[in-house]
Amino acid sequence: GGRQGQAAAEAKQSRAQGRRMTGLKLQKRLAASVLKCGKRKVWLDSEEIQEISTANSRQNIRKLVKDGLIIKKPPVMRSRARHNEYLEAKRKGRHSGTGKRRGTANARLPFKVIWMRRTRVLRRMLKKYRESKKIDKHMYRELYLQAKGNKFKNKMNLMENIHRLKAEKAKEIQVEEQAEARKARAAAQRARKAAKAQQN
């Protein structure tokens, strides 16, 4: 019974305080004007209602603000901590499963963009190889067109192809040199035989 009575007394007191606060409409409006904010942002000290109610000019309100009886409430903040945590997880690749995807694969990362990135990488590499004399202009042109024709998946592919072509070219040169050497030996032999025949 005692606890119920105490609760009822507290409710009565808060209602009375609310009624007293409603009598401060003027003060609240003037305070909002002085503090340059909305009326809902004005805090009036409920302990000093008597003194606040006597203030009926902006000058009096300024004095009460200075004394700390009227305060401008701080702005209501929305914490970004949870959202920042979510973004951190997104950076790690979380929250991007099939259920989170709204667009098609092409809409999310266009095939054209992938193509452009790969082509630029390959063309940069070819240019670098040509400038450093690793490949000649003929091989450059051939590989450039092959890259355009989507022959190489990545730089590694292209590099392997360059090494293979260079090895083939080196082999061809070697074979040609050996053939030339054989021809020269055969010609020398023929010349020796002809000379010997003349001597006889």
Beta-strand content estimate: under 5%
Radius of gyration using CA atoms only: 46 Å
In this structure, how is the largest beta sheet organized?
Answer: 2 strands, antiparallel
Question: What overall form do the CA principal axes indicate?
Answer: rod-shaped
Mean pLDDT: 91
The number of helical segments is: 9
Which segments are poorly predicted (pLDDT under 50) over 5 or more consecutive residues? none
- The overall strand count is 2
Order of helices and strands: HHEHHEHHHHH
Q: CA-to-CA gap between the ends?
A: 151 Å
Give the strand order, joined by hyphens, for the main sheet.
1-2
SSE class: mainly alpha
Residues in helix, %: over 70%
Note the main attributes of this structure.
9 helices; mainly alpha; rod-shaped; 2 strands
Summarize the structure in words.
- This protein has 200 residues and is an all-alpha fold.
- The protein has nine helices and two strands.
- The chain has helices spanning 2-22, 25-35, 49-54, 58-67, 81-91, 105-108, 111-131, 137-148, 155-199, and strands spanning 42-44, 70-72.
- Strands 1-2 form a two-stranded antiparallel sheet.
- Helix 2 packs across helix 4 (58-67).
- The chain is rod-shaped.
- The model has no long low-confidence stretch (mean pLDDT 91).
Describe, in short, the structure shown:
This protein has 200 residues and is an all-alpha fold. It has 9 helices and 2 strands, in the order ααβααβααααα. The protein has a two-stranded antiparallel ribbon.
